[in-house]
Amino acid sequence: MASILTDRHGRFHDYLRISLTDACNLRCQYCMPVEDMHFMNRSELMTVDELDTLAGLFVRHGVRKIRLTGGEPLVRKEAAEIIERLGRYPVTLAITTNGVLVDRFVDVFQRVGLRSVNVSLDSLDPTVNQMITRRDHLQIVVEQIEQLVARGFHVKVNMVVMKGVNEFEVGDFVAWSKDLPLHIRFIEYMPFDGNGWSSAQVTTHQQILELLEDRFVFDKLQDGPNDTARAYRVKGYRGTFAVISTMSQPFCETCNRIRLTADGKLKNCLFSSGETDLLTALRAGQDVESLIRDTLLAKHARLGGQLADDYHLTDPDTLQNRSMIAIGG
Fold first, then answer.
1. What residues contact 143, with CB distance under 8 A and at least 6 apart?
2. How many CB atoms lie within 10 A of CB 139?
3. Tell me, what DSSP letter sits at residue 162?
4. Separation CA 142–CA 308 (nearest Å)
5. Is the C-alpha dihedral spanning 5, 10, 16, 17 positive or negative?
6. Cα(181)–Cα(174) distance, rounded to whole angstroms?
7. Distance between CA atoms of 239 and 266, rounded to whole angstroms?
8. What's the CA angle centered on 229, arms 226 and 232, to 5 degrees?
9. Side-chain half-sphere of 14: how many Cα atoms within 13 Å?
10. What is the number of other CB atoms lying within 10 angstroms of the CB of residue 195?
11. Residue 101 in contact with residue 53, Cβ under 8 Å?
């Protein structure tokens, strides 16, 4: 019998992303609506025990990697306890953070064996960074990234590339990886509820490479079978860079990711219009496994069944989804 984590297209999902909260200490424009942002009540969130129970269920059925996301996962009061608990499972544990609070948790990361930290940072220019995040934390984040590297963590820096906003900085990010083993990841701008996305703002994989070709000589690296990022290395550099080409070159055929929102809803795709309420079922003592199975079997072949294969034809006003901050990266 096939695993409950296998969809009808034969894809096995062994990578679970768990959002700890939809709250955040930044206000990035591509992540959350500019206005009318409402955060979940505490009673709506999975408790530590509930999150642990659901994570354990997924691990028993074959999940081998768990990434903690948000919002900003480290603003949750019980973040350290959750990390400690999940660190007991036989999985690769990772986290995506904006980096502002990292220094408070580094010892916890090291104690449980969490070695991979993704830091979201979209500009190295103070003015642009403050415009994007609506906060002034750039220097703090840069220092935190360099401290993580110094302590031996595998650090990826995630940059959402937006045309007319920060695409001119891609070369500066790559240059940052010359003497530091940073792994820069350029992410094509994606549409979510309330983020004002337009296809005209997308800087594609090919356009990013063209921006870099005038400044660097780089080689293509071998990608893993489920990698979403296409990786490269500049000759002589300690770090690497990669492009996540969701819009221009989707990688749905090899997708192995599922998402559990902070309020216990299972999403089988980042762009799915539907989601399954595991938390209410768990609290009622109902069969959660069958819900997981049905959710995976309902997964569309590509892009949640909502986005057009040609991203230029995607109409953001017709999409049914949450904001990125409410989904969890």
1. none
2. 10
3. B
4. 36
5. negative
6. 11
7. 34
8. 120
9. 14
10. 19
11. no
Q: Are 122 and 185 in contact (CB under 8 A)?
A: no
* 109: its two tokens: 């990361």
What type of residue sits at position 194?
Answer: G
Confidence class for position 33, pLDDT limits 50, 70, 90: low
**What is residue 260's predicted lDDT score, i.e. its pLDDT?**
98
**How many domains is the chain built from?**
1
Largest Cα span, the chain: 60
- Run of H or E including 186: strand 183-188
Let me know if residue 7 belongs to a domain: no
Provide the CATH number for the domain around residue 275: 3.20.20.70
**Residue 31 pLDDT grade (very low, low, confident, very high; cuts 50, 70, 90):** low
Task: Give the up-direction half-sphere exposure of residue 213: CA atoms within 13 A in the CB hemisphere.
Answer: 7
Task: Give 263-280 pLDDT, tens digit per residue.
Answer: 999 999 999 999 999 999
The domain in which residue 96 lies consists of 15-327
Global confidence as pTM: 0.95
Spatial CA neighbour of 204 closest among 230, 223, 226, 173: 230
Strand 229-234, strand 218-220: pairing: antiparallel
Tell me whether residue 66 is in a domain. yes
By CB atoms closer than 10 A (0-12, 13-18, 19+), residue 224 is exposed
Sequence letter at residue 253 = E
Q: Is residue 6 part of a domain?
A: no
In a domain? residue 163: yes
Name residue, tokens 């959710």. Answer: 295
Percent of the chain exceeding pLDDT 70 equals 95
